[in-house]
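Cross-check.
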Amino acid sequence: MTNYRQIYLLAVCLSFFSLSAAAQKPMEGGQWKDTSGKHINAHGGNIIQYRGTYYWYGETRSNGGLVSSLGVSCYTSKNLRDWTSRGLVLSVTDDTNSDIQRGCIIERPKVVFNTRTRKFVIWFHLELKGRGYEAARAAVAVSDNPMGPFRFVRSERVNAGCYPIGFCLPDTTDLRHQLLFPELQTWWTPEWRKQIERGMFFMRDLEGGQMARDQTVFVDDDGKAYHIFSSEDNMTLNIAQLTDDYLGHNGSFVRVAAGGQNEAPTIFKQDGTYWMITSGCTGWAPNAARLFTAKNIFGPWTQLPNPCRGDGAETTFGGQGAYIYKVSDAKLRRQFGGAEYLFMADVWKPKELGNSGHLWIPIRFEDGKPVLRR
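Predicted model, tokenized:
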């Protein structure tokens, strides 16, 4: 009997240590293998849960530099630890008439499920083939199935001809001509920054639509969805409401932190308060995270100090935020120390983007504010 008990206790211990080791994988900031032993090539993406299965989506890259997009990949799991590759759910094409022609750049795909239409919708940042980062478009695709295939719908600049909530219309005539002024053709002067805040770049792009680069999508408690993206040459964030089918913008939006240079927006809501964690604009190099908060999705938003604590806090522990995922299953929260929210980040390797690492950090609250610790 004693021998059986010892064997049982040993098995329990091994199981516990195996679970603990697996639970630490996403927090290491390095290579994380799928069930076939290959690195998970899903970057800048997000996770959704649907009918008991977790779906992790992300940009799939070769290691051929910036123009290396293959499409959007999907991995599935039952426990947020063991992920099985399901291949590409949206792939680039050789059709020269398509916006997602091979050679384009697909970044930061976010999938949401629309309970009204029963459709799965991807929004992503798209740069057209051969144009570097000039196009700055938002793109959308749709599917009946979480594992695709997703049908590409369109890409475009955002909210063409629309003014943001709270914008001072009497300024617009003046702002249309600001870029012609010699003193404003040099960036980073105090005068230039003031005009950016007033909307100089916004007015520049009014007719053709606002630039949309780093982005995320947030579905609120009432089912309304919001597209949050870096705009105005990454100077200003936009929070734009989507249409009821999540396939377009309804024209309601706000400018946030104008002139502040924020990208990589991530957002969550806790007890009626919205929290947004972003990064600065330092290319592929990591920097200190920024924290914003608001009582209303359309603001006003208040910036708070860096939410990171501990060694590496000034570089967000080497990562850049991709998404904040709410872990609804209390049992699964145990592997993340009981945390309800996970800050998903990428540890970028610009020369081999497909091998970029994954970093997941539990979000905890201290003194009423979210904190990231490693």
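Residues 1-26 have pLDDT under 50 and may be disordered. The first strand starts at residue 43 and ends at 50. Passed to J.P. for a second look.
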